[in-house]
Design goal:
The complex is a heterotrimer of chains A (290), B (311) and C (329). With 290 residues, chain A is mainly alpha-helical. Chain A contains 12 helices and no strands. Chain C folds into 2 domains: 5-94 and 174-315, P-loop containing nucleotide triphosphate hydrolases (Rossmann fold); 104-173, no CATH class. The chains are: A mainly alpha (290), B mainly alpha (311), C alpha/beta (329).
């Protein structure tokens, strides 16, 4: 009997890992821990991220023979890299999260508007989409940021402008087909208001596609934010993001590579994890999207 | 066809015009360059004289009209920093940028497309999985991280290559590799999925059922069809030849367009930023037009649609 | 007494650009070009024709889903208000639509019960408990069981889905149902069931149907009157039995002879040559003349009007009286 139970057990394990592949589980675990870090940054950081410890300047991390007092080492002012990393994770994730949210909301709304009004309004939205797609956003962001100066709010808003066109395209396409022959037309024919048609019917129907798109734009936003911050044009000191930590650590590349490598590893692992989870979600929710 | 071409050009010009207008108003709405260049505590007479000299005391629409008027005559203004024509300043940097982006582009094609095709033809093999893993890594690793890691390994630890600058030909190697690797990863992934899609089509099965050798099925049927979607992404890469190296140029202190842009932005040098935006837009738009025509050339369906469209 | 639905000289034009922006000339497409008919309460008007002849546009015009370019639609003597206005919304309680593809017309993320109750929620009728009760009783009336209430559309069969669409339409207690090819997407065995259900509902509830279909046999079975459309115009209209046994218009004749019959015998078939012309390039004279085997010179130059023939039916053909009527040889 136990001999029969064992293969059953094994089959159950196999089925579990088929539904939840190990890489996906690892990626999910990483994302969850990042979210926990971002939410609990104040509690988790061992030091204040601006606290100086001049006796322990450029102290290496444990793996390179450092002490437990500064697990990931310190920078040239003796600031604790772990604490700075935690605060940077919080800021970078915050910016990417709101940036993605703004892009999704703006893009979906414009997509609905284009699909609802058609004709000139639609042409205008399509022109904006073309314009957005034909200019590398980094360049536009550079111009806007430098000349508007940069507050955190403006920066987040700018991140939100990065990938709206992806959502606008999706929302427009799916809404047009729903409006032309499908459930949306049927509900409208029943006398439903626009709010009901779009809010209660179209949005839930396209939500899975939009969520999958978010897993694509979220890493893009992290990369854009860190790139701009790396160039010194994004998040400004004393605030710290993953990108400007790398940019700052670059000065000490020879003497203290950990200052740059720690945030770089977090960026790479985070974008990678979200991509992995995104692929998995796409297969689960929306096999038509590629 | 001629009409189609004219329509396409008209739209391209419209896009460029939009970019210029966007740049003009964003840049002028965002602060007083006089104060930024002269510093805030400059004497009021100096600020006034600076404004008058650059026409900043006139109404915005008048400045805009003057700008467009001069732009149409090829005069895109002077750099506020050193007074030289902005266009000349920018064009001087173009060869430097192309010196790294063009070899990088070749590298992308040379690695990305064969890797993608190979992975698709040997689906789920070890090579396929490895290619896919590397390609995911290729676009989740930001270019500045890759650049710094390469510097750390090849310049700092091994000492084989210079870490920055543009003094020797060897200086170009790391920037080219950084740009090429990321692009190759994206291209490999894209080529693979385009190939897989084509290989799943009924006409491929029909062709091999007819008794055509697999090699001929692939070279005569699969590759030309998979080339169509791949063209889009290659076209986009052509478009980024000018603007795609901003971060990499900064890391390696490479004196190209990208660094000029970052420093002009930091110095609030309006005219130079405008010229760069214009140049970038023009390259992207030109690349898009080229893609359209390449489409027509490789895809007979598109060609006939183009003709119908122009009738 | 005014008719429940009265359509007079209805026109719907579309401007279409032939060719890519910004070139290409603008052309006018007459989707519906001067259509008139009446429908009394409790009666059925069948609308037949090839795809692209303007049947579906007519249905949308009748419901006010598309604004008319010309002419008017009157519901119980009142002009149809513009789409989206409060009056238009209120009118939804009197007229409803049944769709060709029930799966597309239903929201696959909403349970059957909630979809049947939705019209009541939209129009603010009753309490949630009352809506539920009303929905269950309507579902029972169209042959759906209470356990279907919490299911989702994709879990049910094609016939059951069409019953959901019907239930959703009927829950507001309308007087007119516009049925756009309601059975053509269903299995043949299910089609008869749905048609019988429609007939039973008409008897029980006194519904009027505007029944659009290209299935002439179904139309003949269900309709009190039939109108045949060709390129946006009605070419023949009248009693279904007479119209199908002795068509006056050559186009009707061609449609009828295309019906497969069990004992074809020596029936002469009239085969239509070619596709219907592009509605943008409407032929001069009678629109049907390029495909008509009887066409004479007059057909090429003069457009025939719809006129009443001696036997009471209406036809738009110069040769209506001259042509042989009988289908059988």
């Amino acid at each position: 009997m136990s001999a029969a139970a064992e293969p059953l057990q094994r089959r159950r394990v196999a089925r579990f890992f088929e539904a939840w592949p190990p890489t996906t589980l690892l990626a999910l675990a990483w994302i969850v821990s990042m979210v926990v870090v971002a939410l609990g940054a104040d509690v988790l950081a061992p030091y204040s991220f601006t606290a100086l410890d001049l006796r322990a300047r450029l102290s290496p991390p444990i793996l390179l023979g450092g002490s437990w007092a500064h697990a990931l080492g310190t920078d040239e002012l003796g600031r604790d890299v772990l604490s700075r990393l935690i605060m940077s994770i919080r800021l970078s994730f915050l910016i990417a999260f709101f940036g993605t949210l703004i892009a999704a909301a703006l893009g979906t709304t414009l997509g609905f508007v284009a699909a609802h009004f058609r004709r000139h309004v639609e042409s205008l939205v399509l022109m904006l989409i073309d314009f957005q797609a034909s200019m590398p956003f980094l360049i536009i962001a550079l111009a806007v940021l430098a000349f508007f100066g940069n507050s955190l709010v403006l920066f987040v808003a700018l991140m939100g402008l990065n990938s709206w066109e992806r959502y606008a395209r999706i929302a427009r396409g799916l809404t047009i087909s729903a409006n032309e022959q499908g459930y949306a037309a049927a509900v409208r024919q029943l006398g439903a208001s626009n709010l009901r048609v779009y809010g209660l019917h179209v949005l839930p129907n396209i939500a899975s596609t939009l969520i999958v798109s978010m897993t694509i734009t979220f890493p893009e936003t992290i990369l854009l934010e860190s790139g701009l911050s790396f160039l010194g044009l994004g998040v400004q000191p004393p605030l710290s993001s993953l990108g400007n930590m790398v940019g700052y650590g670059r000065e000490y590349l020879t003497r203290a590579p950990w200052i740059m490598l720690c945030p770089a590893a977090v960026i790479v692992l985070s974008t990678l994890s979200i991509s992995v989870v995104g692929d998995w979600l796409r297969d689960k929710l929306d096999p038509t999207l590629r | 066809m001629l009409r189609y071409l004219a329509g396409r050009l008209l739209r391209a010009l419209l896009t460029i015009f939009l970019v210029i207008t966007f740049a003009f108003f964003v840049l002028h709405a965002s602060g007083d360059p006089a104060l930024m260049i002269l510093s805030a505590d400059a004497p009021p007479e100096a600020v006034k004289a600076f404004r008058a000299a650059w026409g900043l005391d006139r109404p915005l629409w008048e400045q805009y009209a003057a700008y467009i008027f001069h732009a149409l005559q090829g005069d895109l203004g002077n750099s506020m920093r050193d007074g030289r024509p902005a266009l000349q300043l920018v064009l001087e940097r173009v060869p430097m940028t192309l010196a790294i982006t063009v070899p990088a582009f070749a590298l992308k094609l040379a690695i990305g497309i064969p890797a993608g095709i190979y992975a698709a033809l040997h689906r789920n093999s070890l090579a396929d999985r490895l290619t896919m893993m590397l390609s995911v890594a290729g676009f989740t690793v930001p270019s500045f991280v890759l650049a710094l890691v390469l510097v750390l390994v090849f310049a700092v630890k091994l000492g084989w290559l210079p870490s920055a600058g543009s003094d020797t030909a060897a200086s170009a190697i790391l920037p080219i590799v950084t740009l090429g690797v990321a692009g190759a990863a994206i291209l490999a992934r894209f080529t693979r999925s385009a190939m897989l899609e084509v290989l799943g089509q009924p006409y491929i099965r029909a062709a091999s059922a007819k008794g055509l050798s697999w090699r001929r099925v692939v070279t005569e049927h699969a590759l030309p069809n998979a080339a169509i979607p791949t063209t889009t992404i290659v076209g986009f890469m052509v478009g980024t030849l000018i603007a795609g190296a901003v971060v990499v140029e900064s890391v390696f202190a490479w004196p190209g367009i990208g660094r000029l842009l970052v420093s002009s932005v930091a110095n609030r040098d309006l005219a130079v930023v405008q010229v760069i935006l214009l140049l970038v837009a023009a390259t992207m738009v030109t690349a898009n037009i080229i893609v359209d025509f390449v489409y027509g050339w490789i895809d007979p369906r598109m060609r006939s649609r183009g003709l119908v469209g122009g009738r | 007494m005014t008719a429940l639905l009265e359509v007079s000289d209805l026109v719907r034009k579309y401007d279409v650009r032939q060719g890519a922006w910004p070139f290409g000339r603008w052309a006018t497409l007459h989707a519906v070009d001067g259509v008139s008919f009446k429908l009394e309460a409790g009666r059925t008007l069948g609308l037949v024709g090839e795809s692209g002849c303007g049947k579906t546009t007519t249905a949308k015009l009748v419901l006010g889903l598309v604004p008319a370019t010309g002419g008017e639609v009157r519901i119980a003597g009142e002009r149809l208000p513009p789409m989206g206005s409060p009056q238009w919304r209120a009118l939804r309680r009197r007229m409803q639509m049944v769709y060709q593809d029930p799966l597309a017309a239903l929201d696959r993320r909403v349970s059957v019960g909630r979809q049947v109750m939705e019209p009541l929620a939209i129009h603010g009728i009753g309490t949630p408990a009352e809506r539920r009760e009303r929905a269950l009783s309507i579902m029972d009336g169209v042959g759906l069981a209470p356990h279907h209430f919490d299911r989702y559309p994709h879990e049910l069969s094609g016939g059951q889905r069409q019953r959901i669409v019907l239930a959703r339409a009927l829950v507001l207690d309308p007087q007119l149902l516009v049925c756009d090819e309601p059975i053509s997407a269903l299995d043949v065995s299910i089609q008869a069931q749905v048609v019988n259900l429609l007939l039973e509902l008409q008897q029980r509830l006194g519904l009027a149907y505007l029944f659009i279909s290209h299935d002439l046999r179904m139309v003949r079975q269900i309709s009190h009157e039939v109108a045949v459309m060709y390129l946006g115009r009605i070419v023949e209209q009248g009693d279904p039995d007479r119209l199908f046994s002795q068509p006056a218009h050559p186009y009707t004749r061609a449609l009828v002879s295309a019906i497969p019959v069990a004992h074809a015998g020596r029936r002469r078939r009239m085969v239509l040559a070619g596709e219907p012309p592009n509605p943008v390039d409407r032929p001069a004279g009678c629109a049907f003349h390029p495909r008509c085997p009887f066409a004479v010179e007059r057909c090429r130059s003069e457009m025939p009007v719809l006129r009443t023939l001696a036997d009471g039916r209406r036809a738009a053909c110069h040769l209506a009286e001259a042509l042989p009527r009988s289908i059988a040889a």
